[in-house]
Specification:
With 147 residues, the protein is an all-alpha fold. Helices cover 84% and strands 0% of the residues. The chain contains 6 helices and no strands. It has helices at 2-33, 39-66, 68-75, 77-80, 84-112, 117-138. The chain starts with a helix and ends in a 9-residue tail after the last helix.
Length: 147
Amino acid sequence: MYITILAIHNVLRWFVILAGILAIILAYAGWFGKREWTSADRMAGLFFSIGMDLQVLLGLILYFFLSPLTQGVFQNFGAAMSDAQIRFFGLEHIFYMILALILVHVGRAVSRRPKEAVIKHRNAAVAYTLAFVLILIAIPWWRPLIP
């Protein structure tokens, strides 16, 4: 079960990255191109947030129930913090990803409220970019795609 969920979590990251890139490109194109907010802009943000929701949900299942790595963190937190890789998964990865999830949802919320399309695009661009940077920082690039 652990390997299956981890593999899905690893593959789903590419959907999140692609959805994030699309949402960011559309947001900046709308902001600087001063174009109207379209259903494509809304859907790009929606796919980015759904992907992040699924990714974080799978990550939380791994973190709290399935991962032998984090189970070791829970047993001896102090010792785990002295190992860089264990600290990454036990603290940094989950912190950055939850923060990124919040930013994606904030981006969707602040892009719905204004009446002016340029402000919608600007708000989405800023929030999605900040979230995307956190995602890139928090991805364990050294791990294999399929364990």
